[in-house]
Amino acid sequence: MQHRELDVGFFWSALALATLGGFALGAFLAWQMAWGQNLPPDLAVWIQVHGHLQLVGWAGLFIMGVSLFFLPRLAATPLTRPTWVPGILGTTVGGLVLEALARLVGPRFMPASATAVLGLQALGAGLTALGVLSYGFVLVETFWPKRRKQDGAIRPVEPFLALMFVGWGTYAVTHALLALAAAHDGTTLLPLAWHRWAVEAFMALTLFPVAYAFSVRTFPLYLQTPLPGPGLRRWGWGYVGITAVGLLVSMPVFVERGGSRWVLLTEALRLAWDGTVLGLIWDLNLFVRTRPAWLSPDAPRSPHPRTGQPPRRGYSDYGEFGRFEALLYSAYAWLTAAVVLDAVGIGLGWLGRRVPYGRDPVRHAFLLGFITLLILGMAQRMLPGFMHRKQLAHPGFVVWTGLLGNLAVLGRVGPLLGPAAPWPFVRALQQAGLALSGLLVLGAVLLLAWNLVATRYCMDGRQGGTG
Ligand code: HEM
Questions:
Q1: Using one digit for the tens of pLDDT, what is the confidence trace for 275-310?
Q2: How far apart are CA 403 and CA 398, in angstroms?
Q3: Of 30, 3, 176, 12, which Cα lies nearest the Cα of 99?
Q4: Using a 6 Å cutoff on CB, does residue 75 contact ligand 1?
Q5: Across the chain, what does the average pLDDT equal?
Q6: How far is the CA of 212 from the centre of ligand 1 (A)?
Q7: Cβ–ligand 1 contact at 389 (below 6 Å)
Q8: CA nearest to 409, candidates 107, 21, 26, 3
């Protein structure tokens, strides 16, 4: 059976779009906001472009690259249309770049309502949607139950994987329709409420399910957690139901007409979602082990074939991927913080107390804290093997990506959880945290890029050659 090799273009594109696009925009905006300096007059458009680039260009392209390699192997079925892959990458990335340029650079040279700007904006969004839908089509076709040659590894996480494809389609189609609607209205600003809804839909339908499914399948090996419990499939379908109802009820078309009782209903459903995610974190047995590990820490451990060194206790590696586990544990700690903050915010509101923070810190605890730290950790643990390398070129970098990444989340989320402090020193710390958060995470992403490029292109056969 011939499987397709890793398409590294997805990772190089994600790293380029993140450093030059999404993170750079976020870093600039956070810096200006923190020091009270001038913001672009079309700030809302900049924020939307930052969000879209981060969701699809950063997290999305990593997910595409890993899933096109890993999922067919999990199902023991080769990808049905391997020749489509370069086209999927080209249209997705081309569309993202075109749309970002049209919306941010176009209006510097001509009115934002010019046909050329609006046409390119809609074309960019359409191209990205085409890339995303083709990606979804190929993987769903490959994964179709009758075609799979192996089912056991997929069944426990099937609800999460199914939802991931629904999320990709929902986000890409909604975003393209919003870009068309904006073009029709003669603006580069997508309708705000629907754009926010699409962001929440992508987080709940795609980002969480895929992150969780990959964690369930890989943590037993990487972190010696237990295999999935017998109830995981049921938990998964529960998650699907709560997410679907929650997103349906929170659609702007219903919220605008529903009044305060409807808002109460959306909040109750969000609480249920938060609770389900906490339950899933518990079931992963990451922080508290309630079931025996897949690999017992006392099992005979084979020494490293070349150095004779035993594996690290509690892990299946010899340290050749650095301290990647710190990133994975931090990611799940930030996810826990995100859902607890969300639930506390809703609870305070119900008690008639003023909630000192809005949705933004919760969203970034999830997107930067959970998703980005998970990418930083998983990429350095998983991708060397996918590239036929036995180790990272610079295992020592990993601890620095963890440190910079965590400081960035702290700076991005912490200062927004309450009002500015009355003490000048603490206030300066809050400002500096927010201002520097983007630069800190850019440092972490650049270290990751350096490590992956060096692992792929600079390792000789003896150090990390084909395994
Ligand atoms: C340190 C890194 C980051 C910085 C400095 C940053 C900065 C910002 C800023 C200033 C905003 C506008 C907030 C407002 O509405 O007042 C924002 C919104 C947003 N960010 Fe980030 N961000 C970062 C990381 C990320 C990551 C990793 C993602 C996704 C993977 C992300 C996705 C979003 C989204 C979806 C929005 C909302 C867009 C909208 O409302 O249209 N950000 N970010």
A1: 999 999 999 999 998 887 776 666 656 777 777 777
A2: 9
A3: 176
A4: no
A5: 93
A6: 22
A7: no
A8: 26
Two structure tokens written together for 155 = 């069944």
**Which residue's alpha carbon is nearest to atom 27 within ligand 1?**
368
Three-class secondary structure assignment of 231-293: CHHHHHHHHHHHHHHHHHHCCHHHHHHHHHHHHHHHHHHHHHHHHHHHHHHHHHCCCCCCCCC
Compute the distance from residue 51 Cα to the ligand 1 centre, in Å.
6
pTM here is 0.95
Q: Say if ligand 1 is within 6 A of residue 270 CB.
A: no
**Could you tell me how many helices (H) and strands (E) the chain has, helices first?**
18, 0
Mean pLDDT of 197-222: 96
Q: Distance from the CA of 45 to the center of ligand 1, in angstroms?
A: 12
The closest residue, in CA terms, to atom 41 on ligand 1 is 48
405 token code pair: 């990444």
Q: Where are the domains of the chain?
A: 1-210, 224-299, 315-462
Best residue among 45, 50, 62, 412 to mutate for probing ligand 1's pocket (most ligand atoms within 8 Å of CB) is: 50
Q: Which residues contact 107 (CB under 8 A, 6 or more apart)?
A: 42, 117, 188
Q: State residue 138's pLDDT score.
A: 96
CB of residue 66 inside a 6 A radius of ligand 1: no
Residue nearest to ligand 1 atom 37, measured at CA: 51
Range with lowest mean pLDDT among 226-240, 381-395, 429-443: 226-240
pLDDT tens figures, 238-255: 999 999 999 999 999 999
